[in-house]
UniProtKB/TrEMBL annotation:
This is DUF2163 domain-containing protein. Residues 182-265 form the Bacteriophage phiJL001 Gp84 C-terminal domain. It comes from the Bacteria. InterPro entries: Phage_phiJL001_Gp84, Phage_phiJL001_Gp84_C.
Length: 274
């Protein structure tokens, strides 16, 4: 490829399947089934890549645009973990191109009418802790392939309507009854309708009120605030204790912890009478 005909092109695929293309060239480029548009103001800092297992490091910066990346979508988290591909491409012959980066969007920050997004390379997951942890509490996530519990079972989820909320974090819900206090703690709240549809948060506090709306508080507020009248779904949570697995979920045969593991005090106690 000749240096004077080289342009950068970005392909970004959101988790909901929306695909957008951007380029620093002054005309639209077409390849990979994507139209790469020049007017969206997306660019990148220098890509830092390595041959080892360290994480590729770069950032994408751009201008918020109603036709492409909107502030509402960023606040709603709809760009979180979007798949990103970056090419060097010969704009005079787009078939002559080279993929130089692939990864996902990480943390997104905003300032005025612009945004900045961290890009994480494909090697980033290799830095996560691997292997099994021996602990009295369960190491599985509720409903995953190791837990095997089906959260769709009657009684383990409920749908209601938002009566009111504070900053998208503390909600008062109507239409949810028959569940004891704290039943949904550590579970999820998922917005089912309205502008914030699809957003979800982890439940910190769940308290039914006698004759009034159920109060549900999230650990962190939703990026985009739902409105009163929007429908939400609550999914029960698990505190990963053996007793909870046995009594609440009737799923002790799939418990992935070690409830009879000696406590730390026992391990450091004197070796007398053992």
């Amino acid at each position: 490829m000749k240096g004077e005909t080289i342009a950068r092109a970005w392909g970004v695929t959101r988790q909901d399947g929306l695909v957008l293309g951007f380029t620093d060239h002054d005309r639209v480029l077409e390849f990979e089934g994507i139209s790469f548009r020049p007017e969206c103001g997306l660019s990148a800092k220098a890509v830092v890549q390595s041959s080892g297992l360290s994480v590729d490091n770069t950032e994408a910066v751009g201008v918020l645009s109603d036709g492409a990346i909107t502030e509402v979508d960023l606040l709603a988290g709809r760009w979180d973990s979007a798949d990103v591909r970056l090419w060097d491409v010969d704009w005079s012959n787009p078939s002559n191109r080279r993929l130089i980066f692939r990864g996902r969007l990480g943390e997104v920050s905003r300032s005025g009418g612009a945004f900045k997004a961290e890009l994480r390379g494909l090697s980033e997951p290799l830095n996560r802790t691997q292997g099994r942890v021996y602990h009295p509490r369960c190491s599985a996530e509720l409903g995953d392939r190791r837990c095997c519990f089906q959260t769709e079972k009657p009684g383990y989820s409920a749908e209601g309507v938002i009566h009111s909320h504070d900053e998208g974090q503390s909600f008062r819900l109507t239409g949810i009854a028959g569940h004891e206090a704290r039943w949904f703690e550590r579970g999820e709240l998922i917005v089912q309708s309205g502008a914030a549809e699809g957003l979800r948060g982890v439940v910190k506090l769940d308290l039914p009120q006698s004759g009034g709306p159920r109060e549900v508080e999230l650990w962190s507020g939703l990026g985009l605030h739902p409105q009163p009248g929007d429908r939400v779904r609550l999914i029960t949570g698990c505190d990963k204790r053996a007793e909870t697995c046995r009594l609440k979920f009737l799923n002790f045969m799939n418990f992935r912890g070690f409830p009879h593991l000696p406590p730390e005090d026992w391990l450091i106690a004197p070796q007398v009478n053992r």
